[in-house]
Design brief:
- By secondary structure, the protein is an alpha/beta fold.
- It has two domains: about 110 residues, Sandwich (Immunoglobulin-like), CATH 2.60.40; about 325 residues, TIM Barrel, CATH 3.20.20.80.
- The strands form two sheets. A ten-stranded mixed sheet has the order 17-16-20-14-13-12-1-15-19-18. Strands 2-3-4-5-6-7-8-9 form an eight-stranded parallel β-barrel, surrounded by six helices.
- The chain is built from nine helices and 20 strands.
- It binds 2-acetamido-2-deoxy-beta-D-glucopyranose (4 copies).
- One 2-acetamido-2-deoxy-beta-D-glucopyranose binds next to loops.
- One of its GO terms (molecular function) is glucosylceramidase activity.
- Belongs to the glycosyl hydrolase 30 family.
- One of its GO terms (cellular component) is membrane.
- It comes from Lentithecium fluviatile CBS 122367.
- Keywords: Hydrolase, Signal.
Amino acid sequence: MGLSTPISLTMTLRAFLLAGLTATAPARSTLDPRQASTITVDLTKTYQTIDGFGMSETFQRANQMHALSESLQRYVLDLLFNRTSGAGFSILRNGIGSSPDSSSDHMVSIQPKNPGGPTAAPKYIWDGNDNSQVWVSTEAVKTYGVKTIYANAWSAPGYMKTNNNDANGGSLCGVTGASCSSGDWKQAYANYLVQYITYYKEIGVDVTHLGFLNEPDLTTSYASMRSNGQQAADFIKVLRPTLDKANYTNVKVTCCDAEGWSSQAGMMGSLNSVDSSLGVVTAHSYTSQPSSPINTKKPVWQTENADLQGPWATAFYSNNGAGEGLNWATKIYDALVRANASAYLYWVGVQGGATNSKLVRISDDKKQVIPSKRLWAFANWSRHVRPGAVRVGTSGGPSGARVSAFRNVDGGVAVQIIQTGSGAGSVGVKVGGGFTTGAATAWLTDNTHDCDKQTATVGSDGTVSVQVPGRSMVSVVLEPSG
Ligand SMILES: *[C@@H]1O[C@H](CO)[C@@H](O)[C@H](O)[C@H]1NC(C)=O
Ligand SMILES: *[C@@H]1O[C@H](CO)[C@@H](O)[C@H](O)[C@H]1NC(C)=O
Ligand SMILES: *[C@@H]1O[C@H](CO)[C@@H](O)[C@H](O)[C@H]1NC(C)=O
Ligand SMILES: *[C@@H]1O[C@H](CO)[C@@H](O)[C@H](O)[C@H]1NC(C)=O
């Protein structure tokens, strides 16, 4: 059985991995005692608060999930949202449609036709399905307890824009530098977005975050709308009071999902004028990766990244390819530790096709689903670093490793050790600042392990000892005693 062989539901993932992989983790006897080291966690040194980890099933990807057999539907939902058997994702990013129809992978608008101008009575249409995003959202919220739903429009409907098309760029009529003979559509677009939230509220799904742009620095053949920082600020000045008037005071406005970290940073100057109306700054990582903080006091989310073109890869580590799990564990680390991000979202969770643009692949015959190690890299973060956790300081650690730590709302401390090098060793983890270690657990992910529990020994001084193999990620979770 090769790596690319799809896993069937009748076979457990672990059995598949044991049968299918030839790489082996270093045995204990190969550990180099010189690499024994201690990580000290400093709970008094606090950084950003974490909102969570997630992905999207927009552009009709949710329809692909929904078309699976009932047992595979449950399996993929578990892989995404279950904290015991899957990634335990805590954020779902939905797409708010702007297209006049559902052909191809279009996201259909809730007002496909111009109602007769910006001040005409709206003619909304709700199909109660939203390309199966209603189903995924309901499952996420009701079955798995997901609390953060990010609804994000890629564009306004075409008739609200300078180019009369929801695709191919164009701008929202009425923002600076975008005047249209049809009038100013800012208020109509704000009303439209609020109506979308209301449709979800009516089915028991609370949208918590609302975005009105996606990659506004890119013109492309699918839904896309251009905006600079000033134009985004113009619209936020209308959107925030519209939300408040509809009693959605807790819904946070996000902006602007720019194509890269640097391009989003470049929009911040103009967004300062609406600072009090802006909830979360959102950026993608395609044209530049998060390597330093964006200059803002607002929480910043990395809302989209993926290996879009790479051939489907399931390995945790092989030759440092763009789709490998270890690479994604490291990318998440960079965003959280180097760039102060409060959330990290992959592009698509589950879909068919032969690239790494998703975490879980639906086989071509649609009878099987195959999780990649990217999913397990996310699991290592998402399962143990829960919404509300605060990043805390660390010092020390094995040579070549990236170390991070978070204090969860329940008082537990989660420490991540990503060893990108080949060196293996024993590592001690010590939490300072009045923390008394009760129980401790470690989990290992590498080529041959997925969420496998490891031995973690608590010493008399509270230091927890774990083995960290080369090319692996180890999470250690320490519960306070008492
Ligand atoms: C998550 O997975 C575990 C283990 O398979 C299972 O027992 C549990 O019921 C699942 N949780 C939900 C909410 O489905
Ligand atoms: C506004 O929302 C609050 C709770 O969020 C609720 O108690 C109140 O009844 C709502 N008011 C209206 C007018 O819907
Ligand atoms: C990190 O983000 C938080 C908000 O989540 C902000 O208050 C803080 O100033 C940021 N720190 C840096 C160094 O940018
Ligand atoms: C990473 O995730 C996999 C799956 O949950 C798990 O086996 C492994 O132990 C996890 N590692 C950490 C550090 O949580």
